[in-house]
Specification:
Layout lengths: L10 E2 L7 E2 L16 E2 L4 E2 L1 H14 L15 H22 L4 H8 L5 E2 L6 E2 L8 H4 L7 H22 L1 H22 L10 H18 L4 H14 L8 H19 L6 H28 L1
Antiparallel strand pairs: 1-2, 3-4, 5-6
Helix pairs in contact: 2-3, 2-5, 5-6, 5-7, 6-7, 6-9, 6-10, 7-9, 9-10
């Protein structure tokens, strides 16, 4: 049947002109054929109106200051990160107890720039292409006090930032801060020095919280005092703390948080992704430069 032979009382589907229909979209009132009909609360809607409605709902949905979705549970990602750190710690201790050697796992996955493997003629480290160490080292802890301090700090800082940024943005902040801490250790520490722990990521959260409080015009003194105390502890002699990771995470966390909370509302997500990408590109550039320096 052609358009000129249409049955009385029927219209042409606005998306398929060759099809007759007696159904109209309840929102825009345009005729729609069975292939274009989508169930609505009342009647049917066309695909365009359904997409437009979804976009309007997303635009009007309450958002965090950084554009993330508001959640009733603001501790989920924080708890997952704590769980991963604890699981790795238990794995390290179990490996030691079973006799397979805790140090073997540290040798293979902790942050190390470029060195001979203990008891082996093999060269190991990030400069040999083992760049995964930049991330795996951030989930490894040797001593009970070390993981206890970092997980307490993560529990103290995490839920507030997770609530303010949203889950995805908070996770990106944590992981990139961890990478920044490892990158700073790679670039500034001795090439044969092992380092491990979530301290770089935690200091990234400190930097992010300071930026967030500044944006919200809250009293920053408690956080600044706590941060100052931790920085003093970082540089105390005899504690053997990787200060490079702390400073690297702090700077990266502050930079990412600034980009997230100051992003323009228009194209906010794209802007935030761009900020994270720029920080990652800087980290890659530093790693490549350090690798060339060590291996040339």
């Amino acid at each position: 049947m052609t358009q000129h032979e249409r049955q009385p009382g029927l219209s042409a589907c606005f998306r398929h002109p060759e099809r007759d229909t007696g159904i109209h979209c309840t929102r825009c009132e345009r005729p729609i054929c069975p292939d274009c009909m989508i169930d609505a609360a009342v009647g049917y809607q066309c695909p365009e109106c359904v997409r437009q409605g979804a976009a309007e709902n997303a635009a009007t949905q309450p958002r965090t200051i950084a554009g993330g979705r508001l959640r009733t549970d603001t501790r989920l990602v924080t708890l997952c990160l704590i769980g991963v750190n604890l699981a790795v710690f238990v794995g390290l201790k179990a490996s030691e107890y079973l006799g397979s050697g805790e140090f073997g796992l540290i040798r293979d996955f902790a942050m190390l720039g470029y060195a001979w493997a203990p008891g082996s003629p093999e060269l190991i480290g990030a400069a040999t292409g083992e760049w995964y160490r930049l991330l795996t080292s951030a989930f490894m802890h040797q001593a009970v006090f070390h993981i206890a301090f970092n997980m307490f700090a993560l529990w103290f800082l995490g839920p507030n930032l997770e609530a303010a940024l949203g889950r995805g943005r908070f996770l990106a902040l944590y992981l990139i801060s961890a990478l920044a801490g490892s990158t700073a250790s790679f670039a500034l520490a001795a090439q044969n020095q092992f380092s491990l722990g979530a301290s770089g990521a935690v200091f990234g959260l400190f930097g992010a919280l300071a930026v967030l409080l500044r944006k919200l015009r809250y009293d920053m003194r408690p956080v600044l005092v706590l941060l100052a105390v931790n920085l003093v502890i970082t540089f105390l002699p005899g504690l053997n703390i990787a200060w490079q990771a702390h400073l690297g995470g702090l700077v990266a966390g502050a930079a990412i948080a600034y980009g997230m909370v100051h992003a323009p509302r228009r194209n906010r997500t794209a802007y935030q992704v761009g900020v994270c990408a720029v920080v990652l590109l800087v980290l890659v550039g530093v790693c490549v430069a350090r690798t060339l320096q060590l291996t040339s």
